[in-house]
Amino acid sequence: MTTAVIDPTEVFVRGHSGLAGLTHHERLVFLLSEFETLMIMEGWDDFFTSRWAEHYPEMKTGLSLTNDHQSVAILDDYESHLRTNGVPLESAAIDSFLARQESKYFTTCRDWRDDYLRLSEIRWSKVTSYLKANGITLLA
User: For the chain, which end, N or C, has fewer CB atoms within 10 Å of the first or last residue's CB respectively?
Assistant: First the structure.
């Protein structure tokens, strides 16, 4: 059996030119990488207000396919938090909601970023196993 190879660095570069040229599996690697990169550089909410937010459902579905239930639970909790505050899962609505918050909001809500990043090694191990089961090697 021939094994395809995904180079995350190459996919990250190509993905920034647009997702149309990426395979389904490459898109998952790109979206997860972009999500982590944005949250490290800009904060948890940045992905949800970025140009990539429209691909969030695809990313979350991909995480489910890898059986990463812990990461999905964190995302579910964030979605629940937004719903509780009357905020739809839409970039403009999230951006508007965040812009209206005072500093106390940011210091009192859950640190989804820390919780999600703590699972990074487990998450990428699950992604690697999922890809391997689909005949794809993810380069380190």
Answer: N
